Amino acid sequence: MAGASTHSHSHSAPAPSLSARRLGWALTLTLAAALAQALGGWWAHSLALWSNAGHLLSDGIALALGFWAARVEDAPPTQRLSYGYHRSGIIAGFLNALLLGLIGATLVGEGAVHVLRPEAVDPGPVAALAAGAIGFGLLITWVLSPTAGRDLNVRALFLHAFWDTVGSAGIVLAALLVALTRWGGWDALAAAGIGLAVLHAAWSVGRDSLNILMEGVPAGLDPAAVRAAMREVEGVEEVHHLHLWALKPGFPALSAHVRVTAAALAADGGQAVLGRLQDLLDHRFGITHVTLQLEAGNGPDCAPCGGPTR
């Protein structure tokens, strides 16, 4: 490639993972609630309690997976994994989304079948156990909430617990309706409603996880706006081969080829331009992991680099 060329890198440490102690407490509470609701579902012949118990058991599996991801994602890079294990949490989140989707579809299907063929349900134990599960769910969401907004792995776990709590509230309502109407189909409708809510959560987490795994543009960033702002920097003639992606939520990255004026390269090798670009990307767009390659303003197009040159 003709002309001067250099690379610039700036890095910032990602936010720390959720502590193992919090995940351990959440896992313990979840398994205890799952056992209680499974026994209650067997005793009261409640599909809704059985459904919620199954969902809680899946939460336990998800929490165990999340615990593994939280432990390894901040491990240092290796020769083979130069970025380290930052995406272990994203993989865990995606797997959890698949698990949520499977559970949600099962609950909707079973609920539909039992609405057509409702069984006798004892509403008293169902309401009591579901009310207790609401307390468990609120406690678990409180444990997970501090980092749910910036970690897709924890967000998936938080949504597991949140929809469990909502589902338990629906079971209480269904039990009251069964007591008033003596129709067991309300219990099955509650199970189907829980399934629909779980499917919605699975879609949300799965979509965001897949976007990161496919190295899509992070939410809130517009490549055209970033490119236009970079072009306005003094000494920059053109910006192309621009790529925006994220290693994980809150950790966006950028790489680009920047064509600079001959005067900027002659003055200090383009270091002043690099500094201005880094400041722009950091302060205006929150991008601190940056790789920029400078090209001489009077050099040929860098077609050998491949890909779009816009």
From TrEMBL:
Keywords: Ion transport, Membrane, Transmembrane, Transmembrane helix, Transport. The keyword Nucleus does not apply. One of its GO terms (molecular function) is zinc ion transmembrane transporter activity. Its main location: membrane. GO terms for cellular component: plasma membrane. It comes from the Bacteria. It is found in: Membrane. Residues 26-214 form the Cation efflux protein transmembrane domain. Gene3D superfamilies: Cation efflux protein transmembrane domain. Signal peptide: none annotated. The keyword Transport applies. Belongs to the cation diffusion facilitator (CDF) transporter (TC 2.A.4) family. SLC30A subfamily. PANTHER family: CATION EFFLUX PROTEIN/ ZINC TRANSPORTER (PTHR11562), RE54080P-RELATED (PTHR11562:SF17). This is Cobalt-zinc-cadmium resistance protein CzcD. It comes from Candidatus Hydrogenisulfobacillus filiaventi.
